[in-house]
Design brief:
globular, alpha+beta, three-stranded antiparallel beta sheet
Length: 540
């Protein structure tokens, strides 16, 4: 008879997948990770969302280790951050002492309070959920984003199970869950959908990445939001199957980063995890959590704002758009309309106080989950990034130039799509048929050049000059693309034909020459600050 180990402590055991500076991927425990974070390039989990979930857990550790007995003012936060940043590494004594004081709560297999689990969690029927429910990239019946098969779906190592455990609390989909005994919300053995996915699944997460893991953790450490009552889940009483009535919402970022969206119990056998129960945990809707959640921007919901009460919702990422196409919603704050991510406001304060140089290079990374209907399945993962100077995402005068450049590019792509529509009309086709592929063509052609241009944007005094340079380059790119479309349209478009004029009962002649004239004027008007007076037109 095999005796199961009674401990797999995440402080010591290697479980977090990291990439060292040489590029190799390894697994490290928490004490080693914090002690040598400056020697690590970053996290290297199975999915981008797994890296985000673990990054947020690491941030909760740092916030717990530095939690003030009373709220800090901004100067105190700046001093603390600046001292750590200047040292170039974490003070292991501070963080180590904190982790050691909670060592028992980081034991994955603890019989009383296992890490992020409920020791006595069970169902009335005795059945569990199956490991397929834990691994986010293996939805039922659809093995995608994975090479797992056979034994790897039948069992997991403790290290891999720990990673997916953290991920499940952050990104598990909504829908019906295994009903836990002793949970009064369960009906007929089922835990019915709470309406939302796990907490991070509601967010369009924004992360500023540095040159190593120490820098990344520091850049996303929301010290100004820290407050005495903000406790991560391992400092709260051990979880039970039922929800604590006195804790309906997070009390700060540590709480939000480790919010127990699910009640989970891993089942070990023969040194591996062979099954899991996943039940409903603490429900948390996305409304007005901007004082607790720093890693997403927020937008006012007109439909939900009633009776003088404004409701702000997280800005999410669209899988159909590149990150730079939605820069305005991520980086701009507009009174009564939108709020910038608190993490970006903190970076702005660090830049303004000259603790973080405006020329510091970072990668602004956007990560999110695309869910299926009713958020009951995971359809895909959004992961995109921009290499930028910190001024380009924090200094509002520079941010506005970056947003203007992206907006002009979008208008230029519209002009290219209109050209494709007019050429289609000139050959007797449907004007709508080529638009979707032409939009994708235009954005694909501008994607690399825009990223390259943005990576050099830093100085507010030279921003207007750089904006003009971007416009000229984009005009050349789109005009070349337009010329190729005209050639592709062939002699039939050159001859042209009479078509209905949009919005009227009259007819007009359209051919490739006229379509090109409209296009060249429109693309210059879109991308250059001193446009010509020839209007943009679409024949229908």
């Amino acid at each position: 008879m095999t005796t199961e180990p009674s401990a797999f402590n995440l402080l010591d055991e290697p479980w977090v997948k990291v990439r060292v500076l040489s590029g190799a991927v390894q697994e490290w425990g928490l004490l080693d990770l914090f002690g040598r974070a400056h020697e690590l390039r970053g996290l290297a989990g199975e999915l981008p969302t797994q890296d985000v979930a673990i990054l947020r857990l690491l941030e909760a550790v740092l916030l717990g280790a530095t939690r003030p007995s009373r709220s800090r003012n901004e100067d105190q936060s700046l001093d603390l951050w600046g001292n750590w940043w200047g040292a170039g590494r974490f003070p292991l004594q501070t963080i180590g002492d904190y982790l050691e004081s909670h060592r028992g709560r980081f034991n994955l297999l603890d019989p009383v309070a296992p890490f992020l689990q409920v020791a006595e969690l069970h169902t009335s029927s005795g059945k569990a959920s199956g490991l397929v429910k834990l691994i986010a990239d293996v939805p039922d019946g659809h093995q995608y984003f994975t090479t797992r098969a056979g034994r790897e779906l039948e069992s997991l190592s403790y290290a891999e199970a720990a990673r997916w455990l953290v991920h499940c609390h952050a990104y598990d989909c909504a829908g019906i869950k295994t009903g836990a005994a002793d949970d009064d919300r369960v009906k007929n053995g089922k835990g019915y959908s709470m309406g939302y996915p796990a907490w991070a699944g509601n967010l369009g997460v924004i992360i500023a990445e540095g040159s190593n893991l120490f820098e990344t953790l520091m850049l996303n450490l929301p010290l100004p939001l820290a407050r005495p009552e903000d406790l991560p889940v391992w400092e709260r009483p051990p979880l039970k199957a039922c929800v604590a009535a006195d804790h309906p919402a997070p009390r700060g970022p540590s709480d939000a980063f480790t919010w127990p969206s699910r009640r989970i119990r891993l089942h070990p056998r023969d040194g591996r995890i062979v099954d899991v129960q996943i039940s409903n945990g603490d429900r948390l809707g996305p409304q007005n959590q901007q004082t607790n959640e720093p890693m997403t921007s927020w937008k006012k919901s007109v439909n939900q704002s009633k009776g003088g009460m404004d409701v702000y919702m997280p800005v999410t990422h669209s899988p159909e758009k590149r990150i730079w196409q939605g820069l305005a919603s991520l980086l701009l704050r507009v009174e009564g309309v939108s709020l910038r991510a608190p993490a970006l406001d903190w970076l702005d304060s660090l830049r303004y106080n000259e603790i973080l140089p405006k020329s510091y290079g970072t990668t602004l990374r956007a990560v999110g989950v695309e869910y299926g209907p009713q958020a009951s399945s995971i359809a895909g993962v959004v992961d995109d990034g921009l290499h930028v100077h910190v001024a380009a995402i924090t200094d509002l005068s520079v941010v506005q130039v970056a947003v203007d450049a992206a907006s002009r590019a979008s208008q230029g792509v519209v002009a290219l799509a209109n050209l494709a529509s007019n050429l289609e009309l000139a050959t007797g086709g449907d004007a709508e048929r080529p638009r979707a592929r032409t939009f994708e063509l235009g954005y694909s052609l501008l994607d690399g050049p825009y990223r390259e241009w943005l990576a050099g944007l830093e100085d507010a005094e030279a921003a207007d000059e750089r904006l003009e340079a971007w416009g000229e380059r984009a005009v050349r790119i789109l005009r070349d693309a337009g010329s190729a479309l005209i050639v592709e349209a062939g002699p039939e478009a050159l001859i042209g034909r009479e078509v209905p004029k949009r919005g009227t009962d009259t007819m007009q002649w359209i051919d490739s020459a006229l379509a090109e004239l409209w296009f060249r004027a429109a693309v210059r008007k879109a991308l250059i600050s001193t446009p010509t007076t020839i209007p943009q037109e679409v024949a229908s």
